[in-house]
Amino acid sequence: MEFWRLLRQKVGHDKIILLCAGAAILDDDNRVLLQKRIDKNCWSFPGGVMDMDESFEETAIREVKEETGLNVVVNELIGIYSKYSDEYQNGDRAQPVLILFKCSIVGGELRCDGEETSELKYFDLNEQPELLNKRHEDMFNDLREYLKDNKVKIR
Fold it and tell me: N or C: which end of the chain has fewer CB within 10 A?
């Protein structure tokens, strides 16, 4: 069972810190791959919560595979996001600490998982879609800036 589910059994809906990793996957035209989330019907970067004994890099790689069908490698750190709060449909509350990596595709086949992802699409960085929350908006904007100046963002 995933670590966060075990933790929730102990703390209920209380606010917890969740360690997460996400991936910015770019195509040859520097468009970023986003997933349309089933639960919120809006776009987000592929990624999710770290499991016990995983690194941030391993979390990003696993989550991308689960949500998009792609095999990726982690290339670079884009940003660290820690000053955000989330409340989920079931009442769970969390302060996610998310590490966003730039990743490259090394295999797999692009497909929706049907559980978390209803659609996958590449977006031009000048055409930001409706994103899941402020954290994902900041990540999208930081990715655009990172590609210009290669400076890691910390929020």
Answer: N
CB proximity list for 56: less than 8 A, separation 6 or greater: 19, 21, 50, 99, 101
d(CA 56, CA 50): 7
Choosing from 119, 127, 130, 137, the catalytic residue is 119
Q: Is the pTM of this model over 0.90?
A: yes
Give start and end residues of each alpha helix (H) in 18-110.
56-68
Q: What is the DSSP string of 68-86?
A: HSEEEEEEEEEEEE-S--E
55 SS3 class: coil
How far is 93 from 87, CA to CA, in rounded Å? 4
Taking residue 28's Cβ as centre, other Cβ atoms within 10 Å add up to: 6
For 42, the token pair is: 């809006």
**Residue bearing tokens 């000048």:** 126
- Write the DSSP string, 106-127: EEE-----SSSEEEEEEE-TTS
User: Tens of pLDDT along 94-133?
Assistant: 999 999 999 999 999 999 988 889 999 999 999 999 999 9
